[in-house]
Amino acid sequence: MTLIRIKQLLTSLITMALVACVAGAAHAQDNYPSKPVRILVGFAPGGLTDVYARLFAAHMQAKLGQPFIVENKPGAATMIATQALVRSPADGYTLCFCVSNVLTNSFFRDKMPYQPTDLASVGLAFRSTSVLIVPDTSPFQNAAQLVDFAKKNPGKLNYSTTGAGGATHITGELFSSIANIKATAVHYKGASPATIAVGTKEVDFTFSAVNTAKPLLQDGKVRAFGVASEERSPALQGVPTLAEKGFPALSTGVWYGLMAPAGTPAPVVELLNRELNAYFSSAAMRERIVAGGEIPLGNMTPQQMEEYISKDAEMLRKVIQPLNIRLD
Q: Which residue range is the domain that position 68 belongs to?
């Protein structure tokens, strides 16, 4: 066999192998999902992120015929779950129901186990607002009394967070900065335990997602002093905004959405985006989201989500940096 013929044969074999690989990848995408899919959650079971991740997982399993399994990996302000996500194959079989922390964690740390470029945006579900709550037996009757006591007793009051660097930590530190008080942050592994800590009187206050706080409010285990948003929450009629009580700069919120490892095939991302948008934009889900005190954000493309969360992160950077919080 001549050298030219050998080269031609090798070229043909390489071409055939490449075609087979492309065809195989395309076939795998066409058949997605062909095995169980994991949805990681960076918080303990029972919190807002976990609840909606499980609802979405049940919908996807019923719609696509494969198990969608929620796996809780709480801790480190969702970094444990996010690190597990970016270390997974970019094939659509490991996803994460994420919150704003995935981008804001780097504002508190010099060293990160992942970079924003390691993540692929899939779609947004909703945005939450938080409410300042205290135990039912708290001696304070409003936010002003709490602040007055804290000013006279620096460091004596403590508040729970969903994790160091998480949304409640940011809001708590921002509140302390605006009110010119010192309060001690006590970090928990998720929204549910952080909120329950107020009801069980382990801490003096917290900023809880409205949806998470509502059951404890209804049971009379906690009281609400104000909502950290520009407008009152439809789910908490009668509870004023903190802006109405003299804290105009305290307007924070958290987005919730689905992410995948960077490099996940576009057809898979597009399928997941369509399903997520259809589910969270349905009349039943929108009604549930609004009733819980959240703001629906469905019907965004992956690119629109990327733009939205990048803009949100930049806004939070301007809020966080002056607080000089370091968690390294």
A: 34-127+254-323
